[in-house]
Design brief:
The chain has 213 residues and is of the alpha/beta class. The chain has 6 helices and 7 strands. The chain has helices at 12-23, 31-51, 81-87, 124-134, 148-157, 174-181, and strands at residues 56-59, 75-78, 93-96, 109-115, 135-146, 185-193, 205-212. It has a 7-stranded mixed β-sheet with strand order 3-2-1-4-5-7-6, sandwiched between helices. Strand 2, helix 3 (81-87) and strand 3 form a beta-alpha-beta unit.
Length: 213
Amino acid sequence: MRSSANPRELSERDLHEYTAEVEGHDSQVTGVVGYFYRMYRDEVVARVAGIGGRDVLEVGCGEGMMFDGTGLQPVQMDVSMTRVGRAAGKCRFLLCADGYQLPFADESFEVVLLIAVLEHTREPRRLLAEARRVLKRGGRAIVVVPNDATMSAGRLLLGKFPIRYPDHLTFTTPARMRLWLANGFRVRERFMLPFRWLPFAANLYYFVVAERI
């Protein structure tokens, strides 16, 4: 992938490859982004361990940092060959695959993770439907998305324009998440992940645990 490519002209898959090349390593993420990552990582790991699922799939694992050093060994996959290559030393079960066409039989997993993934897709309903297909009945989907409405409002309060990331393809909010999960899932747990240092930033990330029905 050429680093000089125009992101607007790329397919969804090529866009993920492009951003993997130009953004550098996930392990280099620091500051506010790193704070958020550590915050929802702790929540995800705690719930996967609490659910007790042995058959766990992480869709969009990036460089495999979510479970590195935790002792948990899920199946991890990403659509970007670049990121899969970087994850190779961290993941026991790793593959490069498309989340819209998961290479697994129906009802293969007890838990499917979509952590900061839906905002990077043009068809979030389709991705959730595919996650549901590979979930066992009664299995759990754990989904985290940014609350774009709050993030945009917060930047405006600071006198700044909202950020538009080239690889964020869908505007994500709690209301949209509820609509996307309405068919085939029952929400068991939901809450906001706050950035506690700012008074207006109590609802920046939306965290959902949904049961497949």
